Amino acid sequence: MNLTEKNPPASIEQINAIARLSAIHPTSWLGNFWKVSDGAMIEDLIRIYSTDELVERQQTYEIADYFPDHLLIGDDSGGRLILLDRASMMHFYLLDAGCPSIDDVEVFASLEALVAAVVSELNAYSGDAPCRS
Fold first, then answer.
1. CB-based burial of residue 104 (10 Å sphere; 0-12 exposed, 13-18 middle, 19+ buried)?
2. pTM of the full predicted structure?
3. pLDDT tens digit string along 67-85?
4. Superfamily classification of domain 3-124
């Protein structure tokens, strides 16, 4: 994965505080990511939110109401959200921002697989097409 924009690492205090607020373990995938970069842009497409952005994004997209078992961790810079399964912290969901259900969305076993799919989709996407299908 190519981190095209990388923030400095989050402090242990920041990670622990947001982990408590978000009901995740500080050594989860996301906590470990923040130890390397407190938010980042991957391949100029995928944005992983910083510790400062995470709570606001949950509220803005009403994640607790619509997807209570998931945590919004980023987006694809094109109207789709990236959610992480809170229970396993290992399943990444890619869904349209207006999607009311998690049932029929793309699920990936890793962030790397999600990034590869988004990059592949972009490479296959015709610039003449008005929208994604």
1. exposed
2. 0.88
3. 999 999 999 998 999 999 9
4. SMI1/KNR4-like (3.40.1580.10)
